[in-house]
Amino acid sequence: xxxxxxxxxxxxxxxxxxxxxxxxxxxxxxxxxxxxxxxxxxxxxxxxxxxxxxxxxxxxxxxxxxxxxxxxxxxxxxxxxxxxxxxxxxxxxxxxxxxxxxxxxxxxxxxxxxxxxxx
Length: 119
Fold this sequence. Notes:
4 helices, globular
């Protein structure tokens, strides 16, 4: 079950942990596969988005594991459109996957932004 949550609530959850984001092997692999990173690059390239910007929209997803929370965080990309980062928060904050949104999803997010007065 997915539900939208406030960006402020998400930021509070992240800041409460006072930890760095842990990049999983899967997120690094997907970053390279989707050509966001070259072989020599570190996934820390995305720190600017994650730590430097406020997300545009947050969707909390259902989780199978008790005590774990999973989120899709949409950040506006400097290249246009949006990047989606999937985080799992339990004892640590893990980035488990990332992708650039499709045109269809981008239109939905822009529509959401207009309704919320963000654009």
